[in-house]
Write a structure and sequence with these properties.
Distance between the termini: 59 Å
Number of strands: 0
Oligomer: single chain
Radius of gyration: 19 Å
Mean pLDDT: 91
Length: about 230
């Protein structure tokens, strides 16, 4: 499974493309499902609960769609979307691993356990390759200044403590070149998220508002220029 910096990187790529999500709360939401591990690796039951998980990836995706629909309006929108993007990232990473990466690793002589360990190491190397990047410094500022909402039976204190744990965890990391996992993998994850029912449906509505705003700004600017010719 990807850990926090990778989740933040995927969120950063989405927020860069869709500025409506470039908020402090979105960046915090991206780590919240893993806050269940704030005091040590949580039980499978608790981890699966906060991630609304299922062994079947299609059912898991349906679960997070229903979670989003059930909670929309109960939480600040970008905070909830960050939470959802975290879970979608896990789902799509698993899907890519199972359908594309794992078969290739088997061909190279890896077995079930060594293949996944190699994949996890690749995620860690990718994270470390971003450890000194400006986007990560900005992300840390944003999620530390977000508003914390208790969600999925995770208290505000638990989420706050996860923030502190994350800062401490990555402060001891050092740069290394990416290995098995590269930007191409991350691009596939972002593309997969964009294709989900939650994301394209939500962005369709938001982009209509965004486009209208941009068009209004353009028209006002054009009228100003015409009036002053």
């Amino acid at each position: 499974m990807p850990s926090i910096l990778f989740h933040e990187f995927i969120g950063y790529k989405i927020a860069k493309k869709y500025p409506i999500y470039d908020t402090n709360n979105f960046y915090l939401g991206l780590m919240v499902p893993d806050s269940v591990n704030a005091y040590g690796f949580a039980s499978k039951e608790d981890r699966w609960r906060t991630h609304v998980r299922d062994e079947n990836l299609d059912i898991w995706e349906e679960n997070i769609i229903n979670f989003y629909k059930d909670n929309k309006g109960k939480y600040e929108q970008t905070y909830l979307m960050g939470y959802v993007v975290h879970v979608l990232t896990d789902i799509i990473c698993d899907r890519i691993y199972q359908t594309e990466l794992y078969p290739k690793l088997l061909e190279k002589g890896f077995d079930y356990h060594s293949a996944y360990s190699f994949y996890e190491k690749g995620i860690e190397q990718f994270e470390n390759s971003n450890i000194n990047e400006k986007w990560w410094e900005d992300a840390k500022i944003k999620f530390q200044n977000a508003e914390i909402f208790s969600i999925s039976d995770m208290s505000e204190k638990m989420i706050f403590d996860e923030i502190q744990y994350t800062i401490n965890k990555y402060s001891s990391r050092f740069y290394e070149k990416p290995g098995f996992i590269t930007d191409e993998f991350a691009k596939k994850v972002v593309s997969g998220i964009e294709k989900t029912e939650i994301f394209w449906g939500d962005m369709y509505l938001k982009n209509k508002v965004w486009i209208k705003f941009e068009l209004l700004q353009f028209c006002n600017s054009s009228n100003f220029i015409l009036k002053n010719k």
